[in-house]
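Protein modeling request. Please complete all fields; requests missing the sequence field cannot be processed.
Requester role: graduate student
Desired output: 3D structure, token encoding
Chains: 1
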Amino acid sequence: MADRYELKLPALKILQGTKEIYCFAVDGKKLHDFAAVSRIRRDDQKRLQGYQRPEVLSHIRSIRRYLESEGAMLPNAVVLAFDERVRFEPAVRGGDVKYSIPGELIIPVDESLADDEKPAWLVDGQQRSAAIRDADLAEFPVAAVGFIASGQEEQRSQFILVNSTKPLPKGLVYELLPETTGQLPRSLARRALAARLMVHLNMGDGPFSGRISSPTSPTGDIKDNSVLKMLEHSIYEGALYQYRNATDGTGDEERMLAHLLAFWTPVASIFREAWGKPPKESRLTHGVGIQAMGFVMDRLTADVPVDKVDWDDVRAILRGLEEHVAWTSGKWNFGDDHQPNWNSLQNTSKDVRLLSSYLQARVSA
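Delivered output (365 residues):
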């Protein structure tokens, strides 16, 4: 029969403004009794669940070998997000320090619970905790810092902030952004709206459905960062700007999405062969093509609401591009004896500007 008990750990409650964090030590072998690793995934309704990156097995093995060596030490604290079942009981206190309160952290442990029912989640320290779990050791105490989170949105926010100084995979950050609350660095906050639109494009119906590479869409072949750059430029400087609230940074996402689909659906249809190929075989699905065609959308439809755009005219203009593009073969005719091979264009600022200017000149002629 599974054990049920309360794990009582000496701890310090530290007040940081309106926030409370708890510093304590715990046997790393017991972490997984009450803490789960919430790996990023999508459920049957395509809703985002979790936030952690997959375990890196080679890294875990390396940490395990170190832990099993003489004199091993892990000074960095693991970070845990608790739910309301975890409580802190202060001890009798004295002294003049108001922000540090000694006491006892009480964590309920029920070994029969599934991971998604446990009272704690690992925000940082996934690989270390896995290495300790697998190591040939009777125990290995670790330093830990915990906080009580109001839900997965706050956990995701803290996860991004805690890992912002580490090489966190950008695709993971981009997929977490749409469903993250709390204060974020300005560079990430600016991308949140674009990231939400990208998820809608990838998860819904339309030409981008399942095509954008992300942690929950690993078979996608279009780079997420290229789509984000296209969306971000349009939101702040192009066709999607008209739907944006400049005061609070939000936007009419439904109309933005309708505008995007109204443009990219004929793009995928008119250039069907090029759209159906991966970036290595097509400069349309390559970063340089995605961004350049985004500029074409902005040139043709800026300041005109989706229900007022003459989409028949847009389709006719796109068909007129067919004789000027070299998405999958041939050469680009940029003039002045500049005729590079179709696949020589790369996802660089220089080549994006070159192709964007070329295509915009063709649609404006």
